[in-house]
Specification:
This protein is mostly beta strands and 123 residues long. 10% of the residues lie in helices and 53% in strands.
């Protein structure tokens, strides 16, 4: 079996991109020094209005404890164009939905789209 040509790969990426039905912002947290010499959490928009597709995952729901309360975590898979700058701990904001990236499903052999696992962030 011969590898795909650049033109074939470009055509396949174009077909996949037709399924990116939403737009989202990618926000990255970072620690900055504050005036007292400590650190503060700051965020910056890494990419705005990025085409994507966000779907609820059929992954087994999980739970965590926060403030002595057990909370269910809603899992999602978000797909972005190949080469999108997105990392674990980044936030995906689409309207009122905010997700936190927990892992990437990207593999060099699947160069059609970048997929990430994410969980819903509760305000």
């Amino acid at each position: 079996m011969r590898p795909l040509t650049d033109i074939q790969l470009l055509n396949m990426r174009s077909t996949v991109a037709d399924n990116f039905t939403s737009n989202a912002d990618i926000v990255r947290p970072s620690a900055t020094l504050n005036s007292r010499g400590g650190t503060s959490l700051a965020t910056s928009v890494v990419a705005a209005n990025v085409k994507c597709r966000i779907i609820a995952s059929a992954h087994m729901p999980s739970e965590n404890v926060a403030g002595e309360q057990l909370r269910a975590l809603a899992h999602y898979i978000a797909y972005f164009p190949t080469g999108t700058d997105i990392k674990p701990k980044d936030k995906i904001q689409r309207g009122s939905l905010t997700l936190e990236v927990i892992d990437s499903m990207d593999a060099p052999s699947t160069q059609l789209a970048l997929a990430v696992y994410a969980v819903m962030v509760r305000a």
